[in-house]
Amino acid sequence: MPRSETVSATQPQLKAEFSLVPVAERLAWRNALSLHILKQMRGTDGRPLPRWKIEEQVRHMNMSLDSMILRGFDDPAALEHHFSGQGAHGNDYATSK
Prior knowledge:
Layout lengths: L2 H4 L16 H18 L10 H20 L5 H9 L13
Helix pairs in contact: 2-3
């Protein structure tokens, strides 16, 4: 039986050259991209998100990135643009007062 048929649905899907990178390293890159994107985000007042909010949202951002990668977004610049482009919306939830 070919290896691809023995892989369970819960294992990460491998695509293009990215499949040559060990899983632990791919997860580290995904975490770094999540942190990078979250640190670029701003509240509606234009101020950066507080550290606690960034730490709280890393797991959620990782899930969003995983979903987008599975849908074919495999360019880190395109992923970053999706979250920081003109369509991105700020909110007051993370503002400190």
